[in-house]
Design brief:
Elements: H1 13-18, E1 40-45, H2 49-65, E2 73-78, H3 84-92, E3 99-107, H4 113-132, E4 136-143, H5 146-152, H6 160-181, H7 183-191
Parallel strand pairs: 1-2, 1-3, 3-4
Helix pairs in contact: 2-6, 3-4
């Protein structure tokens, strides 16, 4: 678990960095994210549905906390974690989402399916994010057993679906800010 003091970000990190760089983007990520006006796609796996339903509940709660309008949320159900990348690609592309949250649960069993499914899912989702330029958040649990999955899908602030939704709102906002902050660089590269 990563709850130790050694893994916590220092509260004064942004002040410490600001004197050493020209500009920071994303320093507001630790504050409550504002999702007003964002369109969010959620791809949710049906396999291990007792877990993914809990993750989806957490994600929807996280989006509500960030003030994302429910009319701007689309949920696409897929058979399992392996199918998440294709759904994410459609949600990010033709679906017009500003961010996509992918929810699934891959639980190690007696066969090697875990290694193939979890790895291919992660690779595919990373590729979709890079290909589309839309944040695609990996909210897929990869656990050794059901008890670990249930622990990460609890109906509280530690729910990994909630965390994934918060990350989606934060990344969409950061990319929006980044896009507004780089016109000089874009003009230089176009004129070069």
């Amino acid at each position: 678990m990563t709850g130790s003091e050694e893994t916590q970000l220092s509260p004064d990190v942004f002040d410490a960095v600001s004197g050493r760089v020209g500009r920071q983007i994303g320093e507001g990520l630790l504050a409550d994210a504002d999702g007003r006006g964002l369109r969010v796609g959620i791809a949710c796996a049906l396999f291990n549905g007792g877990i993914t339903q809990r993750l989806l509940d957490g994600a929807l709660a996280g989006l509500a906390t960030a003030s994302v309008d429910r009319a701007d949320i689309v949920v696409a159900w897929v058979p399992g974690a392996f199918e998440l990348p294709l759904a994410a690609e459609r949600l990010a592309g033709a679906g017009g989402a500003d961010a996509v949250v992918c929810l699934g649960a891959v639980i190690r069993g007696d066969t090697s399916h875990y290694d193939f499914v979890a790895g291919q899912c992660a690779s595919g989702l990373a590729r979709v994010a890079l290909d589309t330029g839309i944040p695609v958040i990996f909210g897929v649990l990869t656990t050794e057993n059901v008890a670990q999955a249930l622990e990460r899908a609890r109906p509280d602030e530690t729910n990994k679906g909630r965390e994934a939704a918060q990350s989606a709102v934060q990344m969409a906002g950061m990319l929006r800010d980044l896009g507004r902050s780089t016109p000089a660089r874009a003009a230089r590269s176009v004129g070069a």
